[in-house]
Specification:
Layout lengths: L1 E6 L3 H17 L5 E6 L2 H10 L6 E5 L7 H10 L5 E6 L5 H6 L4 E4 L4 H19 L2 E6 L2 E6 L3 E7 L2 E6 L4 E4 L3 H8 L5 E4 L3 E4 L3 E4 L3 E4 L4 E3 L5 H13 L12 E2 L4
Parallel strand pairs: 1-2, 1-3, 3-4, 4-5, 6-16
Antiparallel strand pairs: 6-7, 8-9, 8-12, 9-10, 11-12, 13-14, 14-15
Length: 257
């Protein structure tokens, strides 16, 4: 499922874009869209801010009353939103501003169906590749993409799980350890250590019968009976070449309450 947002103050333009998206979906049944329409910038920003909405694709008109689409895009980027933005406009005058907010595409109205389909083919493939490398997490009230390679380990602490990342931050997740491991179990680099830890084998620096040391300098005490199976998993992982390539990756999504 792909979340697609349309924002334009002209209802006829919203109708045209939605119709082309529906036509694309009929031609390529591999993709399923959920389309949300917004008639002004304020409505879009309110939903994204207050409802943790992060569309995969955002079709954004530039000339709207009160606020330019490029200004909306800058606000979204400042909020940490990394949706792929496709600007729709009647002028090429704002191409430079679009570049500055990392726009995925800039289309001049009237948009032809073949041009839109060409853009969709490229962007949907990009999203598929990205989904194979990331978890979708709610952190501090915001939906964030976290790269698998940035996860060092996860620790169970009462109602919350603590997810430690390579940049030194710790994300609190309101999930059970079982739920998190279910999402990570398809990735051979993640292993359970006792009942309290899930560890990324890529980040283990040293390992002995008492503890493991991670490449961020932290040391985790090994519970009784954990050393031997962990040593075997560690050895087998490196014997088969470490992390799978992109073709062997899977997509994992974590949704928190």
């Amino acid at each position: 499922m792909y979340q697609i947002a349309l924002c334009d103050d002209e209802i006829t333009e919203l109708d045209k874009t939605e119709k082309m998206l529906q036509s694309y979906q009929k031609d390529d049944t591999e993709y399923e869209f959920e389309i949300c329409r917004f008639k002004n910038a304020e409505q879009l920003l309110e939903v994204i801010k207050n409802q943790n909405y992060m569309p995969d694709l955002l079709f954004l008109d530039i000339y709207m009353p009160g606020k330019l689409g490029t200004e909306v895009a800058k606000e979204l980027r400042d909020m940490g939103n990394n949706s792929k933005i496709i600007f729709l406009t009647t002028s090429v005058n704002h191409a430079l501003e679009a570049f500055r907010v990392d726009a995925a595409q800039y289309l001049v109205k009237p948009v032809l169906e073949k041009d839109l389909f060409f853009v969709l083919n490229r962007l949907l493939k990009e999203i598929e590749r990205e989904r194979k490398k990331y978890l979708l997490l709610r952190i501090d009230g915001k939906i964030c993409r976290v790269a698998l390679q940035d996860i060092v380990y996860c620790e169970a602490q009462r109602k919350y799980q603590h997810l430690y990342l390579t940049d030194g931050t710790c994300a609190l997740l309101r999930l059970t350890m079982t739920e998190i491991y279910k999402m990570l179990s398809d990735y051979v680099e993640f292993v359970k250590v006792g009942v309290s830890y899930i560890v990324n084998l890529e980040h283990i620096g040293n390992l002995n019968s008492q503890e493991l040391q991670l490449d961020n300098g932290e040391k985790l005490h090994l519970p009784r009976g954990a050393y031997q199976p962990l040593k075997e998993q560690y050895f087998q992982y490196y014997c088969r070449g470490g992390i799978q390539d992109d073709s062997g990756d899977h997509t994992a999504f974590i949704h928190t309450s």
